[in-house]
Amino acid sequence: MKILINFLIYDSTTCLLRLLLLAELFVHSSTRPAHSSSLCGLFGSMIPQVDMLMSNAKKLHELSNDELSNLASMESRLHGLPNLQHTAAHFNSLKVNESLSQLHVFTQSIKLHIDWLKTAKDNFSLPSQSAEGANTHLLQLSNLINTSLKQIGEEVPQSPALSLPVASTAFDVLRFSVELSEQLQIFSKWSKRVLRHLQRQSHCPRH
What we know:
By secondary structure, the chain is mainly alpha-helical.
């Protein structure tokens, strides 16, 4: 009889623990935003576009390291490029809605610069395939960001108005190609870091 009572107590306790565990899992799943899973998919689709941007950025010019060092001291002339924050404090303060809006504005700014560079290259009959490739991935990234903003009920920001310099010579185009190559690489690294942070913040599964 004593054994039977002990068994019933053990069985009841086990059942109660299982019910408590299920209840806790239900609370966690119900408190997670409904859009998290779809956002996670969009974040996951953005990262390959950023990786391809990095690849294209390195091909915007075909200069060697020695040739690049000769241009390193030249003053920057593209003042409309995004001012990116790289501090740990900045990344720790990121919120999904604000980060996506900022990423959209920065992506559009970079895209306008790349469009302008492609036109300048075409005007001087210079190879523009890398600029065209970068433009394609920037457009796809922008579309994914727009979809993400709409999913969380945020308005898509207007594209920034830019004043771009005139490329008067082929050498000007070369200088701008080098400057944009460097800035696009920085933007790609920054964007990927932002997206990784948003993935963690949205509790996206790791792959």
